[in-house]
Amino acid sequence: MGQSTSRRRDDHPQIRPSHQPHPLSSSSYSPPPPPPPPPPPPPNYIYPPYPPPCYPTRPSHPIPSPPQQFYTTGSYRYFARPTYPYPPIPPPANGRWVPPSSSSSSYLPPPPPPPPPLPHVEHEKAKTIKNYVNVHKDTIRLEEDESDKDQHLVSFTFDALVDGSITIHYFAKEEADCNFSGEYPDIMPVRVSFQKGVAQKFRQPSGTGIDLGFFPIDDLSKPSDGYAFPLVISAQASSQSLSVDEQQSQPDSAVRVQITLAVIEKKNGEPYRVKVIKQILWVEGERYELQELFGRSESEPEDDNSGQECVICMGEPRNTAVLPCRHVCMCSECAKALIAQSNKCPICRQPVEKLMEIKDKSGSL
C-alpha cells in the first residue's frame, strides 16, 4: 500500500498555480511610445586656410656678456646694467627724411630740426684812455645867486689830475671837433680856471648866472630841434701842467676835454633840477661817449676784490662788460664760453650784442 501511493504521486505531478497577472481587457491597454529619433550630427564648417600673420621682426641683438663690474653693499651684490645698442637712424633720401615702412625692423620718429645758429657776438678789448678831469654828474646842481635871486649858478664836484679850465655854456650845440656855440649871442659862456685836486667843489662866480624865468619849461627840459642843450659843461685839461714824459708822448694838437650835456627840469613848483643826458670825452681828435658800467662800485678799494668775482666761475675777477646792458659780471674766459652756448646776459637775460673786455694795469677791471 505504501508503494502504490508514492508512485501515484510521481505519475500525476501536482500543478502549482502561477502568479502571472491576468491580461487586461482591450479597452484599457495602450501601446508603449516609440523611441526618440537620434540627434542630428553637429554642423561641419569648412573654410579655406588663411595665411599665417606677418609680424614685424625685431633686430636680433647678440646676447650681452655677463656684467664684469659689480659692487657689494652689506650682504647684497649689485651688477652693472648692460647697455643695448639702438638701431641706426635711416639716412635721409634727397635731403628729406623718409619714414620706414610698416614691415621695417624699427620705427623711429623724425629727428628734431637743428636749433637756429646763434648770432655773431663781437668780443673786443677796450682801449685804455686816461681821463685827467672828471665831473661827477650826480652832483650837478643849480643854486640861486645870493646877490640876485632870479639868477641861477651851476655847482658840482670834480676831480682833476692836472690844472685846467671849466666852461659853462647855455643853449649851445656841438660843432666840429667838439666845439660848442650858443644859440643866443647875448648869453656868453663862463670860463673858470682850476688847479689839480681830488673832490673839488666848483661853483659858478656870482653875477655870471642866468635867469631861467625867461625860458619856457618845455625849452629847458629837452634839446632844441638843432640839438642845442640847455646846459653844457666843458672841463678841459691843460697840457702845460703835464709831466715832461706825458708832453713828449702827446702830439702838439692833443686836447683832452670832458663834456657833459644836460637839460633842466622843474616840476610842481620845486626848484630847478639838472638831468644829465650823456657825457663825451674828446681825446687826441677822437670822440668817445662815456657810458656807466654796472657791476663795480667806485667806492670800493682797489686791493679789495670781495664781491667782484665772475658770476659764472666765482674765481676770476670781472673784466668783461656785456653790451648794450653794460653789466660787468664775467671774466673773459667765461664770456667766450657763454657766447658759444647762449646770447643772453646772465644778469638781466637781454640779448648780447657785443662783449667789451676792460683791463687796467693789474689785469682786472
Task: Report strand %.
Answer: 25-35%
Structural class: mainly beta
Biggest β-sheet description: 7 strands, antiparallel
| Oligomeric nature of the chains | single chain
**Fraction of residues in helix:** under 10%
Rg, Cα atoms, Å: 55 Å
Extended strand count: 17
- Morphology call: elongated
Number of contiguous helices: 4
Give the averaged pLDDT, no decimals: 77
- Unreliable runs, pLDDT <50, ≥5 residues? 1-9, 299-303
Report the order of strands and helices: HEEEEEEEEEEHEHEEEEEHE
Region (Disordered): 1-51, 97-122
Keywords: Lipoprotein, Metal-binding, Myristate, Transferase, Ubl conjugation pathway, Zinc, Zinc-finger
Family: Belongs to the RING-type zinc finger family. LOG2 subfamily.
InterPro entries: LOG2-like_mRING_C3HC5, MGRN1/RNF157-like, MGRN1/RNF157-like_N, Znf_RING, Znf_RING/FYVE/PHD
Report what the structure shows.
The chain is mostly beta strands and 365 residues long. Among the domains are: 133-290; 294-365, 2-Layer Sandwich (Herpes Virus-1), CATH 3.30.40. The protein is built from four helices and 17 strands. The protein has helices at residues 2-11, 217-220, 244-249, 332-339, and strands spanning 70-73, 76-79, 122-125, 133-135, 141-144, 152-160, 164-174, 180-182, 190-194, 197-203, 228-237, 256-265, 273-283, 286-290, 320-323, 327-330, 354-357. The strands form four sheets. Strands 7, 8, 9, 11, 12, 13 and 14 form a seven-stranded antiparallel beta sheet that branches. A hairpin with a 2-residue loop joins strand 1 (70-73) and strand 2. The longest helix is centred in the first third of the chain and has 10 residues, at 2-11. The radius of gyration is 55 Å and the shape is elongated. The termini are far apart. Residues 1-9 and 299-303 have low confidence and may be disordered.
